[in-house]
Write a structure and sequence with these properties.
The protein is α/β, with parallel strands linked by helices and 198 residues long. Helices cover 26% and strands 27% of the residues. It has one domain: Class I glutamine amidotransferase (GATase) domain (Rossmann fold). It is built from 6 helices and 11 strands. A 6-stranded mixed β-sheet has the order 4-3-5-6-9-10. The protein has a 3-stranded mixed β-sheet with strand order 7-8-11, with no helix packed on it. A two-stranded parallel sheet has the order 1-2. The chain starts with 7 loop residues before the first helix and ends with a strand.
Length: 198
């Protein structure tokens, strides 16, 4: 939740989304104004799934490093805890990408956790600055190969291997952007499997 400053309204909506579900136990880690749990490591390692919301990836990473959350996240990942999230909560697991954490003009962020050895391009279809910036950053070597997603699309990795892209919206997709000597960056679409309610 820290990417949005541990917004209490957002936190309440997350809890209410699972209200009445006996098969889901929801908890959270907040870092404002101080950690809400006594032992951050024990709390995070006790979870099956960790979800990180969007917001400022730069602030998120800075606070995680300040409180040692970054090293615990690696430990959780290596222990098999499912790491997930959207926007900043997707970008943080990668090497880097494009962010508006520093202002309205997108800038590169290159100090993600690097659990996944790729760049990540979020909001690829909804914010017009994102696609050209990711392509330029991959072309000039600032970022490695990038996996990018339209809004509503998720990337499913097992370990560091991309297994598939999934979408909650028909027609949306994912993309891989790779550096091509003499050509700059080359983009290839990855068709996303449409998720259906069961």
């Amino acid at each position: 939740m820290t990417a949005m400053g541990d917004d209490p309204g957002l936190l309440a909506r997350k809890y209410s989304a699972f209200d009445g579900r006996e098969d889901v136990a929801v908890s959270h880690l907040a870092l404002f104004p101080m950690p809400n749990v006594e032992d951050i490591r024990a709390h995070l390692l006790a979870q099956d799934v960790l979800w990180v919301d969007g917001g400022s990836v730069a602030n998120l990473l800075a606070l995680w490093r300040l409180h040692g959350v970054d090293t615990v996240m690696r430990e959780a990942w290596e222990a098999g805890v499912v790491l997930s999230g959207s926007s900043a909560g997707s970008l943080c697991w990668h090497v880097g990408g494009a962010t508006d954490s520093f202002g309205p003009q997108l800038r590169p962020v290159t100090d993600g956790l690097g659990l996944l050895p790729y760049a990540n391009g979020v909001h690829y279809d909804s914010e017009e600055q994102r696609r050209p910036l990711i392509q330029r950053l991959v072309a000039d070597g600032t970022l490695p190969t990038a996996y990018c997603t339209d809004d509503g699309v998720g990337l499913h990795y097992v370990g560091t291997e991309l297994v598939e892209a999934v979408s909650e919206i028909e027609g949306k997709g994912a993309y891989v952007v790779e550096r091509a000597p003499g050509e700059g960056a080359v983009e290839r679409r990855i068709e996303a499997r449409l998720l259906t309610e069961s």
